[in-house]
Design brief:
The chain has twelve helices and 13 strands. By secondary structure, it is α/β, with parallel strands linked by helices. Helix 2 runs parallel beside helix 4. The chain is globular. The chain starts with a helix and ends with a helix.
């Protein structure tokens, strides 16, 4: 019965009452835009679209939707301003370098605004690597054929299929641990497997981010060190979200206080901290549309784009009726 009422509530939000136009916003999430095999030490599953796919998607948006600036979204939330019909916002998590190399040139050609959420301890720190990329590198670029002492048992690495299956198995286990516990397992695993060395940082540097901001790209926060916020004490949550905003102000100057939760994880206490720290908008990973007349601006939903999202699927996922499927899939 509860599922029925939550489903009805979502549908009534995105369709509105008869004669009423809800203040609807679709938000797209990308991580990387690039060639999956270009950097063998980075997890190719983070590639949301190839450059050709991304350009096709952006040209479709430019022709059929109103892509809005994040400032317009903040204004709609603060003052009740109406977004244009078929409003879409484009976002990128993690500030990977290929946003500059591939995505931003396409966005500029199509004259579309976008927002990049930056984990601010990573720019200009090449020794820092996202934990999922570290594990992928260890599993797929190790000469070893077995990980004998993992927390989930002996893991075979004899074939690419076994490497991927067992990588997923370990990653799922890590999400059940505290942040510090998971980092300990990752460090130990990577030391043992000894993957391939990297030839450059995967994350954009501050000078590159400043240049992109001057060209019109909006920058937002994504914590400092990218912990899953529900896995760390609330005092650390506050340090992460406050420090992230401080870093952006110091390095970029005046910025719009917007945020994306790592892995989408949040709770009431974290939302309260976000409010106290002055964030105006924050985004989760749960699929669905947003009616800005009623949606909490610190839990805005997004549509996650992957390489399985060809243009046919992309067009479907922008439809109101199809967003109900996204919402149910993430329930």
């Amino acid at each position: 019965m509860q599922t029925y009422f939550s489903s009805f509530g979502y549908l009534s939000q995105i369709y509105g009452r008869p004669g009423e136009r809800p203040n609807l916003l679709r938000v797209l999430t990308y991580h990387r835009v690039g060639k999956p095999d270009e950097f063998p030490y980075l997890d190719p599953r983070q590639v949301s679209a190839t450059p050709a796919m991304f350009e096709q998607q952006m040209r479709f948006l430019a022709a059929n939707y109103h892509v809005v600036h994040m400032e317009q979204v903040a204004e709609a939330v603060a003052n009740g301003a109406r977004l244009p019909e078929n409003a879409v916002a484009i976002t990128f998590d993690d500030a990977y370098r290929d946003v500059k190399d591939y995505a931003w040139p396409i966005l500029k050609r199509c004259k579309l605004p976008a927002t990049v959420f930056v984990p601010t301890a990573y720019p200009d720190q090449p020794q820092r690597t996202f934990w999922w990329d570290r594990l992928y590198n260890a599993f797929f670029n190790s000469a070893l054929t077995e990980l004998p002492a993992s927390p989930v048992g002996v893991l075979s690495l004899k074939t690419p299929e076994e490497r991927l299956q067992n990588l997923k198995r370990l990653q799922n286990y890590l999400k059940s641990l505290s942040h510090n516990e998971s980092l300990g397992v990752i460090d130990e695993t990577c030391r043992y497997l000894n993957g391939k060395s990297r030839d450059r940082s995967a994350v954009l540097g501050w000078e590159e981010l400043r240049r992109l901001a001057k060209e019109g790209l909006t920058l937002g926060g994504h914590t400092r060190t990218h912990p899953i916020l529900t896995q760390i004490p609330l005092s650390e949550v506050r340090r992460e979200v406050r420090g992230c905003l401080d870093d952006l102000k110091r390095e970029i100057g005046e910025i719009l206080p917007v945020f994306a939760y790592p892995n989408g994880n949040h709770n009431r206490e974290i939302i309260q901290i976000m409010k106290e720290e002055g964030y105006r908008l924050a985004f989760v990973t749960r699929g669905g549309f947003n009616n800005l007349d009623v949606q909490n601006p610190l839990t805005l939903q997004r549509i996650n784009i992957t390489r399985r999202t060809d243009l046919r699927v992309f067009r479907l996922r922008l439809q109101r009726w199809f967003s109900f499927i996204d919402m149910k899939r993430n329930a």
